[in-house]
Predict the 3D structure of the following.
Amino acid sequence: MTPIPSHLPDPAFTLEITPAAVSAWVDLPRDQRPRLIDCREADELAICQIRGNEWFPLGTFPVAGAKLTADRERGIVVYCHHGMRSLRAAAFLRAQGVEQAFSMSGGIDHWSRLIDPEVPRY
């Protein structure tokens, strides 16, 4: 089993990570933090996003292959609008062998309410 990156919870106990936990590392340089993947659609991305994200709509996950699972040792946190699609995305990534894949609970809506009220809600 891959060692748990210090910024992530133990995957044996949860598939989710809180927005507060993500906010603790989101501003670190990309190579020093987990990957942050937005799995929403283009129209949602145009409304708002979390800085430092990479965009892979959920529908592209099955064909994104190596691009999506690159740097898996850093861990991957996926977010969507409310946290439901990102749960499916994190489960998909784990099924592809990415042990350190998580969904940000509550999605970008929760992020806006708890972490950054400047992020528009929709």
The mean pLDDT is 94.
